[in-house]
Design goal:
This protein is mainly α. About 85% of the residues lie in helices and about 0% in strands.
């Protein structure tokens, strides 16, 4: 009986440590996103791109980082790279409304009217659901 209690306690301890590590990584990722936002405000797009890529190297499943990278690529007039990142973000978080707004802008730049209208429609639909 004592062994079972010790084993259960050990499992709870391991789970708690794992969750703590997960939360620290998430917080660390969010701080990189905030720093990247500050770089963008200062016009330091390359620094923001570097930070976001580093963040995604450590955790490639942060939709907001992919979306932010897509938006920065659009600001740098790199529409193909922008769409690639925005589509990745969209697959992870299809209800992130800013993705559709940015995709609309990129598609318009590229002269892809049909895709732009679809993105705008998705944006308006989500906006109406808020």
């Amino acid at each position: 009986m004592l062994i079972m209690i010790l084993c259960a306690s050990f499992v709870v301890l391991l789970t708690s440590v794992g969750f703590y590590i997960y939360l620290k990584r998430q917080h660390h990722s969010l701080s990189y996103l905030q720093m990247a936002g500050e770089y963008v405000q200062q016009g330091k797009y390359d620094d923001a791109i570097h930070l976001l890529k580093e963040t995604l190297r450590n955790n490639p499943h942060i939709a907001e980082a992919h979306a932010a990278l897509g938006m920065i690529y659009n600001k740098k007039d790199l529409p193909d790279e922008s769409l690639q990142e925005l589509k990745i973000a969209l697959t992870m978080k299809p209800d992130l409304i800013s993705i559709y707004q940015e995709m609309y802008k990129v598609y318009k730049k590229k002269g892809m009217e049909e895709e732009a209208q679809k993105a705008l429609g998705s944006y308006e639909k989500l906006k109406g659901n808020e």
